[in-house]
Each structure stands twice: as structure tokens, then as C-alpha cells.
């Protein structure tokens, strides 16, 4: 092979990052690979939009078939996003004998098991480093670098947009909307930013890395998800008074024969290493029984970081092609016939500490009534402050609890929120500080 032909479908931010990386780093890529990576075609429905990288006119098309049918293209890079059309396109590419690179975590979270099976049947590979953590080589670490480990825990910050928003709200005092506007302008957010702020993008990524870590099929439906759109800046401020910082955390653990996978806003100690992960940076902490604790850190979104991951995949696939190798590393890190279902631990069984903000009338007895209900569900209070300021909806009473079972917390809050003296639904945020100690 004199060159590896690359066809791009979806010329957006990440596509521009790939093209620029191929251009700027052509020499180092060829020195590492032995042959060049050659961009053969770029397909997009909108070729008029102004973009930060230039592509020669003769490479451009609005017709994806020109990519799928081009015999000089060995690898199709799917960056159009979405589910239906992208799924069909990848299946078509595999059937036509092309390898596929994708950053489409939503697609893999929903249809990954089917797509990997199709790739196998066609003796082709789907590479997906860019689907999780932008430029951070998380997939490679789990499938290769940590292959000798039993992985029991993986948690971290997997959405650049949400992390950027929380950072700007915490440090810049920005409103949620202003911070989201900035994240969009910087190209971090998904086409539909609801996926970022409601936690689904993080859930897509957690479903993928959970499967790779534990040797299970990808099960998005097993991931519990809460986003950050209901976060009030007030809670960020109160959390800070207790020494906590708010992050949208993805947590997956394999323990006691069950796995838990959850995504939700989480208070972590300000001294914790993850609290220093700011802006659009992502960080993933992994615990393996041999390696111990490791942490991967880097830009989780953005044009060039994500482009870097796409190019790494192109190079991996190229090496396999050049050496006539196939399925050297299983897609989900475990051999397909060894991937097995593991029972899920429901969110109701989760045990964590909690932050509560009650909005109550300011009169004697309120605090003891609330504490009494919590006690009746076995929930023990660790700290409490009542803020003297009247805000809309009552006086804020902030409480921190010791470890409590989620199902008990929900029942207690339901009862508390029905009290006449409680004027608005209670805000509750989980706190993780016990199990995170090992890397603080
Ligand atoms: N919207 C995603 C994020 C892009 O903000 O992290 C990278 O997957």
C-alpha cells in the first residue's frame, strides 16, 4: 500500500480537527507509519459554511455514496453524528469492506453491540477512541495498557461542556445560560446541548467504558442519569462553604458480583485532585487490581484534541492493514464469546452522603421536624446551617448527612416535601468523599 485512503463523512468541528492534524503532522505520521494517510473525499450536506480548515474543491461532495464506493478509500471516518443515518452508513461502509472510525458515542451506546458484531462478520474494525474523553487515550488504556488488570472502578469527568459550565458558574459567577453560551461558542457542546447538560453524553461514554472495563455488553439502559440543568448557583456557593466543589461525575464500580453505573452532579472535596479538573478538561480515574490507581487527564472536547484521537485510530487501523492483521484487540476489550451480562446494582441501593437544601418557613420547630423524619429513615445528620436570608420560596436550611441508602433518602424527602412548613421541593446532591480518598 502506497498510502491509506481516508474518506470523511461529516465535516464539522471534529472533522476539521482531523484534517488539520493530518496536514500539520503529515511528516511525523508518515515517519511512524511508513506510508501517508491521504484524505480522498469529504462528504457533508453543507459545503458552503465557513470552516477553520480548507479542503480542495475536488475532494468535496454532498453525496455519501461517493465516499462509500470509492475504491481508494480504506477507512471511512463517520463524524455526522446522530443515530439512524449514522448506523446505516457504518453498516454500509463495513459491507463494502471499509474500516470505520467514529466519534459517535451516542450511536455506540445505543447500537454498539450490533455494530461491533457487524464489523466482525465483515472482518473489518470499528475504531472509536474519539468517542470518550476527546483527546485522552482512554479506550486504548482500557483495551491495551491495562489489559492485564481486573478493573473494579472507573470514575471521572467525561463531559467537557458540563465541566466548563460548572467551572464558569463556580469561579466566574456566570449564570448557567451564559456559561452554556460560552461552551457552545468554543465548539465543546453537542449539536443538541441537552445531551451535555442533562448528563446523557456522559452516560453514553460511561456505558462504553463500563463495558470495556468489566467485560459486559454495552447497556445504556443500565446507567442512572441526572444532569446539571437543575443546579442552582446557590447550591454551588453553599457547597463551597462546606469545602466541596460540584462536578458532573460518571461512576462505574464492579463489586459484590454486581455493577453500578451512575452519572449525576456530585460534591467532591475541594482538596480532591478531580476538583482541579477545570474548563473543558476531562479526567478519568481507574483502579485495577495490579496497577492500583491511575488517572488520565486532558482535553475532553474540542477540534484538535478530538482530531488527535481520530488520527490515532486511523494509524492503528493502518498498521493492521499494513501487517494483514484483524481483530488483534477485541472491540470491547474481551473476546466476544467471553463478554457476559453482570447484574446491575440499582440506584436505590446506592449508599452515599448527601447535601440537602430545604426551603422552609422560618419558625421554631422546623429543623427538629425535618431532622426527625430523616432519623426515622435511618439518615444521620452530619452538619447543618440555616441561612438567615429570605430567598424566594423560604429560608434555606442546608444539611449534610452521613452515609445513607438512596431508597431511604427518597422516601424521607418525599415525606418532608409534603410538610406545610416546606415551601419548595428539596434540592439534594450526592457527596462522594469516602471512596475517592485513595487518590486525593
Ligand atoms: N460535547 C462533548 C463534551 C464533546 O462536551 O464533552 C466531546 O465528547
Description:
The chain contains 14 helices and 17 strands. It has 440 residues and is α/β, with parallel strands linked by helices. It has three domains: 4-134 and 303-338, Rossmann fold (3-Layer(aba) Sandwich); 138-297, Dihydrodipicolinate Reductase, domain 2 (2-Layer Sandwich), CATH 3.30.360; 347-437, ACT domain (Alpha-Beta Plaits), CATH 3.30.70.260. The strands form two sheets. Strands 7, 8, 9, 10, 11, 12, 13, 14, 15, 16 and 17 form an eleven-stranded mixed β-sheet that branches. Strands 3-2-1-4-5-6 form a six-stranded parallel β-sheet, with helices on both faces. Helix 5 runs parallel beside helix 10 (200-214). The protein is elongated and about 80 Å long. L-homoserine binds next to helix 7. Residues 134, 159-161, 188-190, 196, 201, 300-301 line the site of L-homoserine.
| Count of discrete domains | 3
Could you please say which CATH topology of the largest domain applies here?
Answer: Rossmann fold
Q: Give the terminus-to-terminus CA distance.
A: 49 Å
Mean residue pLDDT: 95
Count of helical stretches: 14
CATH structural class of the largest domain: Alpha Beta
Describe the global form: elongated
Low-pLDDT stretches? none
Q: Report the strand count.
A: 17
Rounded radius of gyration (Å): 24 Å
Give a quick account of the main beta sheet: strands, pairing sense, barrel closure. 11 strands, mixed
CATH architecture of the largest domain: 3-Layer(aba) Sandwich
Amino acid at each position: 500500500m502506497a498510502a491509506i485512503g481516508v474518506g470523511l463523512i461529516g465535516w464539522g468541528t471534529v472533522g476539521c480537527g482531523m484534517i488539520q492534524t493530518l496536514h500539520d503532522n503529515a511528516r511525523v505520521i508518515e515517519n511512524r507509519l511508513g506510508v501517508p494517510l491521504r484524505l480522498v473525499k469529504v462528504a457533508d450536506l453543507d459545503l458552503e459554511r465557513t470552516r477553520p480548515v480548507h479542503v480542495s474543491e475536488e475532494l468535496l461532495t454532498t453525496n455519501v455514496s461517493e465516499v462509500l464506493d470509492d475504491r481508494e478509500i480504506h477507512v471511512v471516518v463517520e463524524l455526522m453524528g446522530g443515530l439512524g443515518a449514522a448506523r446505516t452508513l457504518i453498516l454500509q461502509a463495513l459491507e463494502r469492506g471499509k474500516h470505520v472510525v467514529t466519534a459517535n458515542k451516542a450511536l455506540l451506546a445505543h447500537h454498539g453491540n450490533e455494530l461491533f458484531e457487524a464489523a466482525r462478520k465483515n472482518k473489518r474494525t470499528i475504531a472509536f477512541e474519539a468517542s470518550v474523553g476527546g483527546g485522552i487515550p482512554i479506550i486504548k488504556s482500557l483495551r491495551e495498557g491495562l489489559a492485564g488488570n481486573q478493573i473494579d472502578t472507573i470514575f471521572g469527568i467525561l463531559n467537557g461542556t458540563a465541566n466548563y459550565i460548572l467551572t464558569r458558574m463556580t469561579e466566574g459567577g456566570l449564570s448557567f445560560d451564559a456559561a452554556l453560551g460560552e461552551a457552545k461558542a468554543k465548539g465543546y457542546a453537542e449539536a443538541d446541548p441537552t445531551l451535555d447538560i442533562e448528563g446523557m453524553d456522559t452516560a453514553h461514554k460511561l456505558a462504553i467504558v463500563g463495558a470495556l472495563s468489566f467485560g459486559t455488553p454495552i447497556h445504556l439502559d443500565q446507567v442512572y442519569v441526572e444532569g446539571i440543568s437543575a443546579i442552582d448557583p446557590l447550591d454551588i456557593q453553599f457547597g463551597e462553604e462546606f469545602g466541596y466543589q460540584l462536578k458532573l461525575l460518571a461512576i462505574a464500580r464492579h463489586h459484590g458480583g454486581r455493577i453500578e453505573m451512575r452519572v449525576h452532579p456530585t460534591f467532591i472535596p475541594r482538596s480532591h485532585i478531580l476538583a482541579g479538573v477545570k474548563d473543558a478538561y476531562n479526567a478519568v480515574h481507574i483502579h485495577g487490581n495490579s496497577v492500583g490507581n491511575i488517572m488520565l487527564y486532558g482535553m475532553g472536547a474540542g477540534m484538535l484534541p478530538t482530531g488527535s484521537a481520530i488520527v490515532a485510530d486511523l494509524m492503528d487501523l493502518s498498521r493492521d492493514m499494513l501487517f494483514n492483521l484483524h481483530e488483534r484487540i477485541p472491540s470491547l476489550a474481551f473476546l466476544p464469546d467471553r463478554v457476559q451480562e453482570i447484574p446491575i446494582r440499582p440506584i436505590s441501593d446506592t449508599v452515599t452522603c448527601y447535601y440537602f437544601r430545604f426551603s422552609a418557613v422560618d419558625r421554631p420547630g422546623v429543623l427538629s421536624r425535618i431532622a426527625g423524619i430523616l432519623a426515622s429513615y435511618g439518615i444521620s445528620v452530619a452538619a447543618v446551617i440555616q441561612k438567615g436570608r429570605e430567598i424566594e420560596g423560604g429560608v434555606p436550611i442546608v444539611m449534610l448527612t452521613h452515609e445513607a441508602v438512596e431508597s431511604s433518602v427518597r422516601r424521607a424527602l418525599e415525606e418532608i416535601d409534603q410538610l406545610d412548613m416546606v415551601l419548595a421541593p428539596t434540592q439534594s446532591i450526592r457527596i462522594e468523599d469516602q471512596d475517592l480518598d485513595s487518590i486525593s
